[in-house]
Design a protein that fits this description.
This protein is α/β, with parallel strands linked by helices. The protein is built from eleven helices and twelve strands. The chain has a ten-stranded mixed sheet with strand order 3-2-4-7-1-8-12-11-9-10. A two-stranded antiparallel ribbon has the order 5-6. Helix 4 packs across helix 11 (about 305-320), helix 6 (about 140-150) packs across helix 10 and helix 7 crosses helix 10. The two termini are about 25 Å apart.
Length: about 350
């Protein structure tokens, strides 16, 4: 159970507003070929494959079985799937490698949000008795959280706009981002959130390869070692939660070892500007931490892949020597209901 596990490769699509000309398999295949090519591995070399996606987005049951065509029909593989963001698929694969049942694993995730109304689709994750029948969409719920932060004196609209500006300016150097460079805040979508405070709707996919011990060192020059990873869930009922805080993120960070030593980079899965305010406080991130150098979810937000991309982006910075100790965060559910935190480190230079 003390095996060292590392992210050894990461690949993602160029995220776009729509990919209507592509099926999920066609969206995935270039990414899978890319991530395997970075390590020289073939499908036959993989001990485990795990994916993350949502049947609600695809509009059909067991849609992930069709996406497996992107991995290949031969040779047979050991495979699993989570109806969650790919970050949770990575957690399952990490557990598999930790037990010694596998030495290498492919983790991928994808989401096509363009075919329907994402705001309506996401209402299906709400409490089915008291909340879902009211049809509050994802932006309306995020606006409740933003207003709670403003009422508590934790932020204001200009501060939220500054968060959006910084993330989108960071995305200017990210060739995969859907939105790059300065983006106007625009009109209110749901007060107090403006268009620039909200994530773009788009399609995309991502994949990472995990490897254990010396196998990781053989596959890449500088592995991104997962020193700690944990995820926690808060109450389903929004009315019993303090929306200005995220205790689940804080507990996950403690368990993952975030507070043991400072991190130099943080990739936060904060689809709304107000959520970055909450996460910064829960994770105790100071001004010396580079937050979302990729642009984060405000620059590209393929549902079911955005959390895995945060881990991949943090790992990629370690691979190329731009970071030594990075934090990656993923979330799922309304108003930061579920949160996963990972700490990644490179070997000393």
């Amino acid at each position: 159970m003390n095996r060292e596990i590392a992210v050894v490769a990461f690949a993602q699509t160029d995220h776009r507003r729509t990919s209507e000309e592509l099926s999920e398999v066609e969206l995935l295949m270039p990414v899978l070929h890319d991530v395997l090519g970075r390590t020289g591995l073939r499908t036959a070399d993989l001990d485990f494959v795990c994916s993350g996606s949502s049947d609600y987005l695809a509009g059909r049951a067991f849609s992930f079985t069709l996406a497996l065509d992107g991995v290949g029909a031969w040779p047979p593989i050991s495979e699993s799937h989570v109806e969650m963001d790919g970050a949770w698929a990575l957690y399952e694969a990490w557990t598999k490698l930790r037990t010694g049942d596998a030495d290498t694993a492919l983790v991928y995730a994808y989401g096509k949000s363009s075919p329907g109304s994402l705001r309506d689709v996401l209402t299906r994750q709400l409490d089915p008795y008291y909340v879902a029948p009211l049809w509050p969409d994802s932006i309306a719920l995020a606006a409740l959280q933003a207003q709670a932060l403003i009422d508590a004196g934790d932020t204001d609209e200009p501060a939220l706009a500054a968060v959006a500006t910084r993330n989108r300016e960071n995305a200017a150097a990210n060739p995969h981002a859907q939105l790059r460079g300065p983006v106007p805040q625009g009109d209110h979508v749901v007060r107090p959130l403006r268009r620039g405070d909200c994530p773009p709707v788009g399609d995309g996919a991502a994949a990472v390869i995990l490897a254990a011990g010396e196998r990781a060192r053989a596959l890449t020059e500088r592995p991104a070692w997962i020193r700690g990873i944990d995820h926690r869930v808060e109450a389903h009922g929004l009315g019993v939660r303090d929306l200005t805080d995220s205790p689940s993120t804080r507990i996950a960070a403690e368990r993952a070892g975030v507070f043991e030593r400072p991190v130099d980079t943080a990739e936060l899965h904060a689809p709304f500007t107000s959520q970055e305010i909450v996460l910064r406080k829960a994770l105790r991130l100071g001004d010396g931490v580079r937050v979302n150098p990729s642009g984060g979810a405000l620059a590209a937000h393929p549902v079911m892949a955005a959390g895995l991309i945060r881990i991949g982006e943090a790992a990629a910075r370690i691979h190329r020597g731009a970071s030594d100790r990075a934090l990656a965060h993923a979330t799922s559910g309304p108003c930061l209901q579920q949160n996963l935190v990972a700490v990644l480190e490179g070997d000393p230079r």
